[in-house]
Structures are given as structure tokens and as C-alpha cells.
Design brief:
heterodimer; A: alpha/beta; two-stranded antiparallel ribbon; 6 helices; 25% helix; globular; B: 242 residues; alpha/beta; 9 strands
Chain lengths: 243, 242
Amino acid sequence: MLVFEDEIGDVAGFTVILPAVSVGNAGQLCVDVLLENIQKEKMKTFQVLHPSLVPVVAPDTLLENTSVSTALQAYVIEDSKLVIFQIRSGILPGQGSAFIADFLKWFKESGCAELVVVGSMHAHERIDKQITGTDLRYLTSLERKVPDDFVKLEHREQDLETGGEPNIPGGGISSRILRQCHQQNLAATVLIKFCSEGDNSTDGMVLAQYLNLLVPVFNKSRPKIPKSWQHLFGHSAPVQMFW
Amino acid sequence: MASFFGEVLPPRSRILDDEDLDAMEEGFCEEFKVTSPPELEKNLLIVCEGSLPGVYTQLCFNNIQACGEILGKSSDKEVSFGKIFRGSNWTVVTCEHDLKQQEFLNLGNTILGLMDKGCQIICLTARHISEFRVEEMIEDESVVRCLSSKSFPATDAVKRLEIPNLLTGLSAAILSIAIVKGLPCFLLVNYVDLFTPDSMTLQGYQSIFKLKCLQESSLEKPNVSEALKSRQLFRPSNNLYI
């Protein structure tokens, strides 16, 4: 079960945003952008423990004091009726179902209104018509109004054969959590970007702006780059080695 | 890694895929048990992750033998994961066993079961210096950093770990549990060039004696060089940094 550091308060009717640990970590980078661009005074932070996540600790990138971030954090923004989760590590192999079950149990018991999962999908798994045009797609568990320029994720041949929801290769828990929400009649939307691994900071930015169109989170047209993205790929090479 | 020239390798991903069956580690322990006496530690619990902090803490107490072990079941065999040492007002748990990711939290919970309310926790660990990310590297300084839970008394004894560094492992698991449960926990990470215990690599741990809870305990701050020599704990003998 999800163990919160403190009582999270009444979040009935709130929208919950959860990143999927997926290709390029785009979902997690997207949440970094969201958190960097929300006013800190409006956020309450809670550390959350779940046995399905690889434990990590790090200095908190959002608060200037001595706070520590753990593998899973929840940020509650009461003004905007949002609960934003951030996963800073990954889900242990074979533990995805346990995490989804516990997460949705918390979601239902809290009375939250909608779940928005942000993630990514392998760009090399695109079908022909996905190669041109926008890299962004969405899926919903129940009927939901979306902006006109949002494109629904197309079925692939393999999905049609199995008769199920579109598969999301490289999407982590995205398709499974959507399927569970559909079965349990919970409102969920999955936002996906096609990407490949590399420097995915742009993918995170684009996904954050895409999510902002669906669920207004921040007011800036040019979101700030998160501080936690410094040295993403380590130090620059020491000049001494070229002497 | 390719095993022959021309081998085509599948693409490696930096993300953890929870559906990747190859990534599922076999033979990990789900349950641990402790063989030490049942009294709970009321003052100070020190957890040493890895060989370096384990060697260091043994220099801090003289000739005390392990009073217990932490055992886990792996493939129907009981494996020793750590040793427990007890003093009048402290308990030290050393864990040199290579742990699997699935074991961190379970082992962390088992170790925290040794303590009573009011006990302070100190976790000691080591990482290779290449893992340390900072704006500007000051080479002469031994790199020792810390993180602590809110309920641990505030201290400036050790510099706080800078953004964007992060830690995983047993120490991270214990600190995570402590944060969520409101327990006082201090984690010290010593960034070293080598994992061989010598006076250079162990020097970073001396900082823990700036903490009030260590000063009030019966553990003694060692002279690392002398203690290593007398216990002949360094190998090989051609190591300059005794």
C-alpha cells in the first residue's frame, strides 16, 4: 500500500497526474517541468513509500531547505485541485501490477475525479501514419472532452488481432493502468509522446505543454528548465586530459 | 557487451522496465531474520552499507565480537547478510553482502526492527567519486556528503549532498523509511577513488564524530592509520596509504 509521510488531506474531486516510467523517462521529465513552473508556496509536498519502487534519496530540488526527496512524492496544489505524483526511480521488475493495484485503491478511496498518466512510447514502433505529423497522442478510459487538435493513439495490426486497447510499447505501466481504469470505471487519460532514448529534455518540455492544454497546470508560455536537469549527463570532460 | 565481433546486440534502455522478464532477479530474499538478543536499541543505531564503513566502524570499538547476524533465505539456504555488534549505548549493523534491488526495503525494515523509539539512526555508505556530480570539483577535499530526515537534529557537521546527486541502496531505503515514519536518520556518503580500506578512503567517516549522538556514545574516534596497522586490516602490504 501507499504510505504517506503525513495526512494528505481531502483530495476528493482532484485531478491526479502520474508519470509512467517509460522510454526516455519522458513522463518523469514532464512532471519535473510541471513542478518547476508551479509556485512553490501553493504546493504541499509529501514523501510516499511503496515497496514496488526502487528506493532512492536525493536533495529536494524544489525546496531550498534541507528536505529530502524519496522515490515517490505527492504534491498537492489545492487552488488548482491537483495532486501531482513524481516517481524518481523505477518500478521493480514484476512489481508493476502491485503498484497499479495499490495506486488505484488509493485513488478510489480518496474520491479523486480523474487520473492523467503522462508517458512515452518507442518512436521506432510507430506505424506509417504516425511518422509524419504530431508526435503526441492520447487515450482515455471513459468518454472525455479533449482539445480539437488532440490525436487519439491509433490501433496497430497486432492490437486489432487481439481485439484490445492499443498497446503502448515502451510505455511502462501506461496501458495496464488504463486497462484497469477502464475495467473499474475510473476516469483516466493517458498522454503519450513518441520518443527514443537520448537527451529527452525536449520531450519532457513538449509533453508538459501538451498536458497543460488538457489540464491547466502552469501559466507560462515558455516553461522554466528544472534545476534537477543540471549535469544530466555528468560533468564536462576535464580539460587536463587534453594536455 | 558484445561477446564476438559482429554480434548484434538488442538496444539497452536506461529505464527499468517492470515487464522485462530478463531483468527480474532470481534468488532474492523476501524475508530476513535477526539472530541477536531481543533488546531494542534505545540510543544509537549505525548501519554500515558496504565494506568500507563496516571496516571503519570496527575501528571505533575495541575487540567486540558480533552478537548476532541478519539471515536471509536464498534458494532454500540461509545466507548471512550482515552482522550485529552491540555496545552499552549503541548498535552497529554491518552489511557487506551484495544486495539485489528487491532486497533493499525488506532488509531496511528488518534492521529498523532492532531499534526502539527515540533511537537515532546513522547510515554510512560509500560511492565511487565518478558518481558525484557537482558544478566545480575541488580535488583536494575528501568528498563527504550527507542527507537527513526532518526529525534528525539539525547539524552542519557535514556538507549536504548537492543537487542533482541521488543515492540508492540499503542506506537510501532506510532513510526513505525513516522519512515516511518520522524517525531521526542521518545518512553519510563517502565518495572515494577506491573501495580498498586505507587511511585515505576511511578518513571521510571521521566526520560522524562531529555529531552529538556519536560524541555522547561510548564509541571512540579512531586514529585510522594506527588502528588499521594494529589490526592488519589493510591489504595488500604494498599499499602506501596505511
